[in-house]
Write a structure and sequence with these properties.
Blueprint (H helix, E strand, L loop, with lengths): L6 E5 L5 E6 L2 E5 L11 E6 L5 E5 L6 E5 L5 E3 L9 E5 L5 E4 L5 E5 L9 E3 L7 E7 L5 E7 L4 E8 L2 E4 L7 E7 L5 E7 L8 E7 L2 E4 L9 E6 L5 E7 L4 E7 L5 E3 L2
Antiparallel strand pairs: 1-2, 2-3, 4-5, 5-6, 6-7, 8-9, 9-10, 10-11, 12-13, 13-14, 14-15, 16-17, 17-18, 18-19, 20-21, 21-22, 22-23
Length: 259
Amino acid sequence: LNESGQVLVTVYDGPAQFAVWSPDKPLRRLAYPAGGAGSNTVALHMNRHGAAVGYTNANSDQRGIVWEPDGTVRYLQDQLQNYPSPEFITDSGVVLGTTAEVGTLIFWATGSGTSTPRFPLLSRSEYDFFEASIAGDGTGVGLMSRNSIGFTAPYVRTGDSYTTLSKAGFTFGYANGISEDTKWVSGLLSLTEEANPEFQPVRWHNDTLEVLPPLPTGRFAGTDDINSSGVTVGYGSIEALDLTVATMWDVAGTPYDLN
C-alpha cells in the first residue's frame, strides 16, 4: 500500500503474478523479468509514483529488481550475494532492504542501483529480532523474542533503539508494516498461546492499539501494510465462498473487499 492508495496484490488467474490495484484505474500487472515467467518473483513494496521493488529467482540466483511505473523491469545489481530482499523504495528511488546475513541493512542508490553501502543493526545476544518492514528513513518494525523467558512482542526500531508496542491483553504478536511517516504500524496479535495462535488484525497509531474487524461475511483477517493516512491492507475471508480475498481497512476501521 502506497501513499497514493495503490495496493500490490497477487493475481491467481494462471501462474501467480503481482499487480497494482488502483481505486480509479484498471489492474496493472507487473511483468516477469526476461526469461522468468512462472518463476519465484515477489514484489514487496511500492512508492507513491507506482515504482515497485522485490526479488526474483528467475535465473537461479536471487536478485533484486525494480518495476518502473512505465512497466520496465530493472535489476538492482549484476549479482547480489546473501539472498538480498529489497523491501522498500522511497519516492526518490532509493531502495532499502535486508540480506540473509543476520542484522544487515542494504541501501541501493538511486539510478544504476549498483551501490550497496551497508550498516549492521544492533545485536543483542539475549533477544532475537525478526525485522518485517522498513520505512524510508530506516525505521524498522517486526518481532522480538526471548525464548528463555517466553517473551514475544512487536517492536519499532529507530536506529539502534528498540521500543515494544502495546499488546493490551493479547498474548503475543508482531508488527508487519510501517507508514512512510512512521506514525502508523500494522500487525497481528493473538489472545491464544504461540503453539495455537488465533491472530487478529491490528494497527497502532503513535502506540495506541486498534483491533480491526474481519469482513462482514468473514471469520478471520490479517494485515500486511499501512500508509500515512492509516489506511491498512491485508486479507480477509468470505466464509460462504470459502475464499480469502485482498482487503482494505479505511481510517475509520471499516473493511472492504478489493475484488
